[in-house]
Amino acid sequence: MAESDDQLATVMSHEIAHALAHHASERIARQQMYQHAADAVNGAMGTMDPERRKLLIGLLGAGAQVRSLAYDRQQESEADHIGLFLMTFRRFTTPNRRFRFWERMQQLASKRGHAPEILSDHPSDSRRIAQIRLWVAQAQAAKRAWKEGRIAPPAGTTERRG
């Protein structure tokens, strides 16, 4: 999908951000929580008619799935946000190139169709582009503050500002 180093950096910084934010661990913990809740509900319905129990468990499972998708979209947005800051602080690409990858994804998606955002585990490409446009200014302001010494580097590092 990536046609340039800038676009590849967008993908790589996004994936690195997932690791930095421990998103895989969060998803595992959330899945375990849902499983414990389902087990508790199933045990509490011991005397319920088997057909009604099956229907209720199905409805609860569908609700958990929709809620899980919202968490997944939130993690994807967070990875976009962190990834943008990583790219800004490492001076990999210019601001106007940071959202080109998502514009390309949007163009490809429009050709093949896609599910509504509420049924997806990722934000829509248009939402991503809009968020990134807002975050570029924040990332640049943070970088300026760091360069001006208003944000200290982590303790024990000797990183150059620039």
Structural class: mainly alpha
Gross morphology is elongated
Let me know the number of strands.
0
Distance between the termini: 31 Å
Q: Could you tell me the mean pLDDT?
A: 82
Q: Nearest-angstrom radius of gyration?
A: 21 Å
Helicity, in percent? Answer: over 70%
Taken as a percent bin, the fraction of beta residues is: under 5%
Series of H and E elements: HHHHH
Whole-number total of structural domains: 1
Described by strand count, sense and barrel closure, the largest sheet is: none
Number of helices: 5
Low-pLDDT parts are none
Would you kindly provide a written description of the structure presented here, covering whatever features stand out?
The structure is a single chain. The protein is mostly helical. The chain has one domain. Helix content is about 70%, strand content about 0%. It is built from 5 helices and no strands. Helix 1 crosses helix 3, helix 2 runs antiparallel to helix 3 (about 50-90) and helix 3 (about 50-90) packs across helix 5 (about 125-145). The longest helix has about 40 residues, at about 50-90.
